Amino acid sequence: QVQLVESGGGLVQPGGSLRISCAVSGFPPDYYTIGWFRQAPGKEREGVSCIGSSWINTYYADSVKGRFTISRDNAKNTVYLQMNNLKPEDTAIYYCAARKGTYSLSPRRYGYWGQGTQVTVSS
């Protein structure tokens, strides 16, 4: 069983940056595809980005392309999401998730989830 713990959320001003982390335990994260998702109040959970065992295979939702970067540090069993030029509409609870299959930004395809970390973008 894979366990995931998010950290690094907080309050950021519009245009600011934040890096959130997902620590993976139970199995090496390079065995899984790891995804970042977010859910704002009253909204459905949406895929943000995901990364496979290869650094070549990274994927982003159109809403965050050019602003967010996903990366992984296998030595630390951690996946990161660097968020730049944050906008108020980025405000949400951010979750990391894992699946054994190939890359996907569909939440329903992921079976392991963390508890989430709150990211608030406001002045």
Describe this structure in words.
- By secondary structure, this protein is an all-beta fold.
- 0% of the residues lie in helices and 48% in strands.
- The strands form two sheets. Strands 2, 4, 5, 6, 9, 10 and 11 form a seven-stranded mixed beta sheet that branches. It has a four-stranded antiparallel beta sheet with strand order 1-3-8-7, with no helix packed on it.
- The protein is globular and about 40 Å long.
- The model has no long low-confidence stretch (mean pLDDT 93).
What topology does this entry show?
Blueprint lengths: L2 E5 L2 E3 L5 E8 L7 E7 L6 E6 L6 E3 L7 E6 L4 E6 L8 E8 L12 E2 L3 E5 L2
Parallel strand pairs: 2-11
Antiparallel strand pairs: 1-3, 3-8, 4-5, 4-9, 5-6, 7-8, 9-10, 9-11
Which structural class do the helices and strands define?
A: mainly beta
Radius of gyration: 13 Å
Beta fraction = over 45%
Provide the low-confidence segments as ranges. none
Distance between the termini: 40 Å
Q: Summarize model confidence as the mean pLDDT.
A: 93
The helicity comes to: under 10%
The SSE order reads: EEEEEEEEEEE
Q: Tell me how many strands there are.
A: 11
Number of helices, counting only DSSP H or I runs of 4 residues or more: 0
How would a crystallographer describe the biggest sheet?
Answer: 7 strands, mixed
Shape: globular
